[in-house]
Amino acid sequence: MAWIDKDCLREDGSLSMYWHLKRPIASGGLVKAMKRLVKPSTWWAMFHTRFATHGENNADNAHPHFSSCNTVCLVHNGVISNYEDCWTVLEAMGHKQTDTGAPDVDSQVLAEMLAVGGIEMVIKHAMGTMSLIWADVRDPAGTLHFWTNGENPLHFGRLDNPSGDIMVASTESLWLRG
Fold it and tell me: Is residue 15 within 8 Å of 137, Cβ to Cβ?
């Protein structure tokens, strides 16, 4: 999971960092961590429980994934069937494959592509199933992006509460219960 709060801001109001918990953890453990780590001052939190489709179930393969320059923080639901080709495109542009300790993690290439060329680069080069949620420190603080190519579900909406929070989930039943 990753989140930002007022402690993540620079004096000029821009985002300086993300807080994150990056390790394989059961859903119940993630709920306990969220209760402990997410505070009333939290602007947004993103988390992803998943089944590892590429690579091992370890901390390197756990979400969120970060671009090599740490500007993009990403969670991805889906499978990128041509992630090795995507790394070739990035390498031709002078961007080496990130050394996460898990080079076969398909989601990692998406974080790098978003940092280098934005969603347009992902759409142009990545093939597979994609529902993405990401933040980029170069955007105004508090900005979250979400996008899907329609191959994996992505449900979102504004909650009926005083703050008008927005919730995004890959499963409609989880979204409705949330």
Answer: yes
